[in-house]
Every structure is written in C-alpha cells, then in structure tokens.
Design a protein that fits this description.
Elements lengths: L17 H12 L4 H7 L5 H11 E5 L5 E5 L1 H14 L10 H12 L5 H10 L8 H9 L51 E8 L7 E7 L5 E6 L4 H15 L1 H7 L2 E4 L8 H5 L10 E4 L9 H10 L14 H12 L11 H7 L5
Parallel strand pairs: 3-6, 6-7
Antiparallel strand pairs: 1-2, 3-4, 4-5
Helix pairs in contact: 1-4, 2-3, 3-4, 5-6, 8-9
Length: 352
C-alpha cells in the first residue's frame, strides 16, 4: 500500500487519536523511521513519535518462551484514556497554540529558560495565559510534545567536586579587590567590568575572553589564540582602538579579574595602546573566591549552553561566538523584570 494512503490532516499540538495509533503500529512493522512516520501522521516530529512508542511499548512472550518488545496501539490508547480520566480540569493553556509553539521553539531550539521564554512571548505580543510555575508543571508532566526536562538549563548539583590536591594561589603585586571603591559594590554606576577566560578541553588552544559589565550585565566575548597575558592585552588594545581612547576610558572604568596567569600583566592591561597613559584600573579578586566575580560566573554558565565543557573552542567560528554574545545580551533577565541587557542599555543611552 502506498504511504500516501496513510496521510491525514495535521493535528499539530494535539495528542494522537486511536486511528493514528493503529496506523503507527502498522508503520513500525513496515520498518519506517520515526521521522518518516511523523511525516505520514500529519507532519508530527520524530521526537513525538519516539515518545509515543516508548509509552505504548509492551513486552510479549514468544512461542519459544523468549520475549520481544513491541508497540501496541490498544495499550497506548488505554494508557492515554486512563491518564485523561485523572488529569483533572482542562489545561490553563487551552488552545493557545501560538504560545505552545513559541515556548517549544525558545526552550527546545534557542536554549531559553522557561521564564525567559514567557517574557519573550509577552514582548512579541503573544497572549500568555499561564504563570511560570504552571509552565514548569507542564514540562515536568510531559505535556509538551517537543520539549522535556532535558531541554531545561542544567540545574545546580549539590555534590561538591573532590580535589586530590589544592593548587597554590598565584602571587603578584596587583591591586587587590579590597582596595576597590565600596560604591562599585552596589552596581549603580555603569562602566565596571569583570573579566575571565573560558578554556576548552585538555590539549586544545582556543580560549574565550569574557567581559561582563556589573550594572547591566552586558557581555563582550572574544575568541583569542591562547590563555596568555599577551593575548589578553592584545584584545583589550584592539577594543580600545575600535572605540577610541576617550570612549574606552569612559566605558571601562575598572576591570576586576581573577589571579590566573593570563591576567597578571596589570600594567599592560591598564596602559592605553593609543596615548600610553592609563585607560582603566584593574583589580584582582582573592584567590579561590569566584563569588567576587559573580556576574562573570553566571555569564560563563550561559556560554556553556552552547559550548560544553571539554569542547575544542578553536573549532567554533568567531561568527558563532558573536552569535552567543548577541544571544546573551538579548536574553530576557529575571533580575531586570524580563528586560534584556541591550534593552536597558538603550534605555539609558549606552552604546558601543
């Protein structure tokens, strides 16, 4: 029989009907792939078919007393009906398919958190008729066809990392964060940055230079050749030449970094590549005190949604790195009431 005979009208956003489950059982016996079956069953995704097969698979006993796994349309329908009887009142999201599609795209494809996905929907004129807690409940319950808990940002693990030994802290004559003006702590004044480097897997050379502005959480991410003092200073020089000496000095009032070997050239980081005078002031956090650069650490977690630990950063193009930077700066933030860093920067007239 031609596959065309199985084609039905698309029911995107709806559960499979019993007739569809019968056809699914037949198509599985015909050895079609999940994507092929999904296309035949009204344009559903292969992921939807995979989840349906998992729910409706039973273990059958063969005549030789061995077992086999097989999808059963009757079992799947019975389970669906049973769940339907216990699900309680109708879902709050109802037939808001525009919101469902937006949430699945933002979380599944664009790596947004549930909060950011809802805020982005509001800003794009999509009706939002559920709260954040309800959205989490829907995801936990598996009510979305194309997203699950696995698509959410990684949650914090309680288990602490074990160390075989403790490395000795770098020592230098740089200016300690203890000497940084106290008014910088309240994050009210624009122009105070935190600087860090993100490295790839062992044996790789690619490195990211990450700079985070403390008041607006604006992000600058640049790909540099190696984790060295020369590369860090070179990238700051390049940024100053692009902005101009005066603008650089007004935007980068201070920079706070850790005690990594790549950050120890305080004089080179502070010295203007144009005027040879001082362009900024560099402060060093205490050893093993990453919380003193909390904005940096949060930014690095966002970067890791795109570049996992152990990856070879040298294989990622500069264009892709700029995409990550743009994504972070346009990301709706809970700390800003759903606005992004770019939106706040435009509101206060910050442009660079």
């Amino acid at each position: 029989m031609s596959h065309l005979n199985y084609i039905i009208k698309s029911r995107k956003g709806q559960h499979l009907k019993y007739e569809e489950r019968i056809k699914l059982e037949a198509l599985l016996k015909a050895k079609l792939s999940y994507d092929e079956i999904g296309a035949i069953l009204g344009g559903r995704s292969g992921r939807t078919i995979r989840r349906e097969v998992k729910r409706g698979t039973v273990t059958l006993l063969k005549s030789d007393l061995t077992t086999r796994e097989e999808y059963s349309a009757d079992v799947a329908q019975k389970l669906h009906d049973e769940l339907g009887r216990h699900k309680g009142p109708n879902l709050k999201i109802g037939n808001n398919f525009a919101l469902v599609e937006h949430i699945e795209n933002k979380i599944g494809n664009e790596k947004y958190s549930p909060y950011s996905a809802l805020e982005d929907a509001k800003q794009n004129g999509i009706e939002v008729n559920i709260c954040l807690k309800t959205l989490y409940n829907y995801i936990d319950s598996g009510l979305f066809l194309n997203i699950t808990n696995k698509d959410l940002p990684v949650k914090k693990k309680d288990k602490k990392r074990d160390y075989d030994h403790v490395r000795r802290a770098q020592t230098h004559n740089g200016t300690s964060i203890s000497e940084r003006p106290k008014e910088i702590e309240n994050r009210a004044d624009f122009g105070h940055w935190e600087l860090d480097t993100v490295v790839g897997g062992k044996g790789t050379l690619g490195v990211l230079l990450v700079m985070t502005e403390r008041s607006l959480n604006l992000e600058i991410i640049r790909k540099i050749e190696s984790k060295s003092q020369e590369c860090v200073v070179k990238e700051l020089d390049k940024l100053e030449r692009k902005l101009g000496s005066g603008k650089f000095k007004s935007i980068f009032k201070t920079i706070t970094c850790d005690n990594g070997c790549e950050n120890l050239d305080q004089e080179g980081m502070e010295r203007s590549a144009i005027t040879k005078g001082q362009r900024t002031k560099v402060y060093y956090a205490h050893p093993y005190s990453s919380w003193e650069r909390g904005s940096n650490e949060c930014a690095n977690k966002l970067i890791r949604r795109f570049i996992p630990k152990g990856a070879d950063i040298s294989k990622y193009s500069r264009k892709f790195i700029r995409y990550i930077e743009h994504w972070i700066n346009n990301y709706p933030r809970k700390m800003f009431g759903g606005f992004s860093s770019y939106q706040l920067a435009n509101a206060v007239g910050v442009n660079f």
